[in-house]
Amino acid sequence: MAKPKVTIIGAGNVGATTAHWLLTRNICDLVLFDVVEGVPQGKALDLLEAAPIYGYSVDVTGTNTWEPTAGSDVIVVTAGSPRKPGMSRDDLLKINNDVVSSVVKNAAAQSPDAVIMIVTNPVDVMTYVAWKASGFPHQRVFGQAGVLDSARFRTFIAKELGLSPKDVFAFVLGGHGDQMVPLVRYSTAGGRPIADLMAKERLDAIVQRTRTGGGEIVELLKTGSAYYAPAASVAEMVEAVLLDQKRLLPSVAYLDGEFGEKNVYVGVPTLLGRGGVERVVELDLLPEEKTAFEKSVAAVRGPMAVLGF
Question: Is there a shared CATH topology between the 5-143 domain and the 146-306 domain?
């Protein structure tokens, strides 16, 4: 029986590392697409040659043309310009709008039944761009951000408490940027509310560090942005789709009245399965949480308006 096929568009740090994490799961064949000749082919061959060591039995192909991507079950879009020091996600808007629109149209034509996941920043807006470009139902187009943001939140909480991150549960709502909303009230460590386990000033500092987590890495690297944790987050979401796991994971999903918002893609809790976003899971928000969420959504709508949406 043929394995599912996943195409990763963009063979840079995030794309290639996503391929690496997925290969170790041994659940799908992979196609790496990039416009730079030789790069996807070389990285695909390098990954394939690790198979005897890691023990995976899948095929990995690198390509500069769209035909090898045909019949993909999942398409992951990482292509675009990364953030540079001093650059906000919104600075990438016009550059990545053209890139995402073009690659999604080409990929969707080859794989009309695929689920599309966007990683390119600013991811909330780029997911909306991808939805429009694909012509797919909105459930089959979503973005990765919340899994990464929540992982950062969980990491910082675990470090503060001296616990394993496995025992920390946390959710982040809203746009992928400085206006995101880490939900302290819904976050626990070992089943206990984190607000009961540390001083408020420490918790506030962790919330702020979560909001600026991507920028912190950009400033440290100087010449790039994060890719290990973003790629691991993508792999977790792809696995949830391919194996129809019905995972409750935060995704950049289309809202059609949920949380009081319409016609926007933004980070919310979702049920991920073979159909993509099978359900948006609404939470009861306190007035201050709702206000923060609305502010975050407004920060997404601004650049959408610039693009005419």
Answer: no
Does residue 226 contact residue 214 with C-beta atoms inside 8 Å?
yes
Question: What are the pLDDT digits (tens) for 272-282?
Answer: 999 999 999 99
Q: What is the residue extent of each domain of the chain?
A: 5-143, 146-306
Burial 248-275 (b: 16+ CB within 10 A, else e): ebbbbbbbeebbebeebbbbbbbbbbbe
CB 66 within 8 A of CB 31: no
The CA-atom distances, in angstroms, between 5 and each of 13, 73, 83, 241 are: 20, 5, 29, 12
Digit-coded pLDDT (tens) for 200-240: 999 999 999 999 999 999 899 988 889 999 999 999 999 99
- Could you tell me which residues are beta bridge partners of residue 249? 270
* Catalytic site residue from 83, 138, 152, 176: 176
pTM for the whole structure: 0.94
Give CATH for domain 146-306: 3.90.110.10
Q: What's the full length of the chain, in residues?
A: 309
Determine the Cα–Cα distance for residues 213 and 127; give it in Å rounded to an integer.
Answer: 21
When the pLDDT of each residue in the chain is averaged and rounded to a whole number, the result is 93
CATH architecture of 5-143: 3-Layer(aba) Sandwich (3.40)
Q: Residue 301: pLDDT above 80?
A: yes
Q: Is 20 a catalytic residue?
A: no
